[in-house]
Amino acid sequence: MQRFGGVIGLTSGKAEEYKRLHAAVWPDVLAMISACNIRNYTIFLREPENLLFSVFEYHGTDFEGDMARMKSDPRTQEWWAVCGPCQQPFPTRAKGEWWAGMEEVFHVD
To answer: Sign of the C-alpha dihedral, residues 103, 52, 46, 4?
Structure first.
């Protein structure tokens, strides 16, 4: 199992919309997340700074393949198109990233 963390900005004035969307994530999107071996996926919001932080566990054996599968899923693409305008990516993110990846520096169970 691998843990991943990501961070992205939230577009000003979009907090309530983002919360509303994530209070009722589309079932097809949730099924794809699970099918791609992602577990314990959480998104936190920090206001008033408008920061979103995500953390999830990957339980598969082919992360790149699973992420490609998710990226090619039409329903997931629709979901991203709805949520995308709420998000403000960091200019310092790595090439190909939307959410900026984070380095895990501490963990305890």
So the answer is: negative
Q: How many CB atoms lie within 10 A of CB 97?
A: 13
**What pLDDT, in 10s, does the model give residues 64-95?**
999 999 999 999 999 999 999 999 999 999 99
List for the chain the helix, strand, coil content (%; round to 5): 40, 30, 35
Taking each helix axis from N to C terminus, what angle separates 15-23 and 74-83, rounded to the nearest 10 degrees?
Answer: 150
Write out pLDDT tens, residues 11-25.
Answer: 999 999 999 999 999
Give the alpha-carbon dihedral of 59, 104, 94, 90, to 10 degrees: 110
Token pair belonging to 9: 């900005």
Residues in the chain: 109
